[in-house]
Specification:
heterodimer; A: about 375 residues; alpha+beta; about 35% strand; B: MetI-like fold; 2 domains; 2 strands; binds adenosine-5'-triphosphate; binds magnesium ion
Amino acid sequence: MEVKLKNITKRFPGRGRKEERETVAVKDLSFDVPDGTLVGLLGPSGCGKTTTLNLICGLENPTDGRIFFGEEDVTDLPPELRGVGMVFQNYALYPHLTVLQNILFPLENLKGKNRLSKKEMNDRAMEAARLVQIEGLLERKPKELSGGQQQRVAIARALVKMPRVLLLDEPLSNLDARLRLQTREEICKIQKKTGITTLFVTHDQEEAMSISDRIVVMRDGVLMQEGKPQQVYDDPVNLFVAKFLGTPPINVFEAEVKDEVLYFSEQPVLEVKNVKDQPVWAGVRPEGFVPGKDGPVICELDRVEVLGRDISVVCRHAACQAENVRAIINSEHELESGLGKVSFSLKPEKVFLFGRGDEERIPFGASCVSDSGN
Amino acid sequence: MNQNSNRAWLYLLPSVLLLVVFLIYPLIDVFIYSAEEGYNFASQTHSGVGTYNYSYVLHDPYFLQALKNTFILVIITVPVSTGIALLISAMLSSIRPLRQLYQTVYFLPYVTNTLAVGLVFMVLFQKTEYTDGLVNLMLQWFGGETVDFIDGPYWAKMFVLCFYTIWVVMPFKILVLTSALASVNPDYYRAARVDGTPKLRIFTKITLPMIAPMIVYLVITGFIGAFKAYSDAVALFGTDLNAAGMNTIVGYVYDMLYGDSGGYPSYASAAAIILFVIVLTITCINLLVSKRQLEN
Ligand SMILES: Nc1ncnc2c1ncn2[C@@H]1O[C@H](COP(=O)(O)OP(=O)(O)OP(=O)(O)O)[C@@H](O)[C@H]1O
Ligand SMILES: [Mg+2]
């Protein structure tokens, strides 16, 4: 079931004193979750991700805008008529019920023509339990389960009523790093197996990038960019998105464009065609550095971290916004670091220019300046 | 390990000492009194040891009356007051505007002097030569017969006593239950709503089990409190409760010690021990039942 948000705005009224202004949690938000895909909703804390989920499942009503499931306008439907399954940030498993009773709970609510017999209910619950591999834990109470198991029970409870849409609110935030990796793959697998349209909230960009078919990046309630993970990574529309995606994060330089050439601290580093003369932010992905003797970007070497296949070069550059520049290079490259300096040339497709004021992307056509060797 | 537990006992010593001096010792003392036959108050002597005091108390019609009154009071007021308190708290926590105001109003009786409240109840229910009292006026209004609730038939007096007791214990229960309700994580309700759970089912399947420990606490303390009722009866019917037929076990103990016909510490002690055994038994049953309930 395709989910469509059309110009959704949600305002929360200010509390108490009159001076306290209302909060705009979501502002003019429009995006689609295509049928049968897994979409990651991504953004920093407080950007309105949970609010967006609540709007989709009907726990909150939008101040403005419409929500569609397929062709059906569900904006005014109460949650129970929307057919959504939701996994809450803290799972919200009923602590006094066993795992099986928790999974059965949504089914026991079905009434009228949807009413199920005891046996049907049990079969459905078992099926859901099998899907998330918790058949052995059915008689336990939630507090007797590990975080990952609880999370799977929560997914089973959300899946058991065969929802049209599955919503997951930061389902992995309570898990440790290893379990997180494992469970996110499991979520991906379950989604592929069931084919349920899934919207998945996280503030961890790596998580979103790794399992989503598409990602939606939000900031302060406003949609920043939407698309395939690789596409958004390779083509960010503004500095925020560029900074938000990627580990290690993008290196941002205070730079200037003069006569279609990009300068870092008076040093020409890259030819940028069709860009007016102006000060800019230049973002360089860590993998955008190519070490070479004659490279125009000269940094003071701090340390080298060997990551196995790659090495991570931590160095300093006067124009860099952050304290360190971090470059990831293939370990086959010889790193020449005479006198504690390393020089790099830049891969133009890994360099993005942004306006100093609005931080919007400035497109350019490029060829490298002094990168004759490679 | 051993040294550790020695130290623990050392830390506990002050509170254990207090407990022994003010709780255990008096209890044992009362028990000894209750077993001493023919105790002479003036000479502090007794003629023997046995169960005569118990048998006297258990055959005393005043005690049997007090026992009956106490049981009726307990059986009616504990469930009714807990139930009503639950209802009111559930309503209080589902409304948003003026919630603070309602909470304050419901809590007012708790900080009001019970004797003063008893006086007000008397005025409301009593029938005198001058007036039938407000309640009787209302009864007449609806076409009923007037009844003297303070000096009239037994059931009417019992009704007022129960009514009064429920009214007095209600605020505390509401206070406990509203805070218990407020402490339930709202995510459970949100999850239930997404699953389309009807309101009543949310209440019985989620809210009630979540606040069950608090309800158990209220029922147990309610039982104990009602078994120890005395001042409520005095506030409504005066100090001569035996004459009014509205005595309670604690009232009986008091009368045996200090009442007009008093001066019998042995009988008083026996009655007190009987009360102690009853409360202990009921509390144990309560705990066992609720433990089994909570585990399921
Ligand atoms: N019920 C509410 N009343 C008033 N303001 C609210 C309410 N719920 C959320 N907000 C505000 O709306 C904004 C977005 O909140 P939301 O919970 O959607 O953020 P989030 O992206 O889920 O953050 P996190 O990653 O921390 O969970 C926040 O500024 C928050 O203070
Ligand atoms: Mg959130």
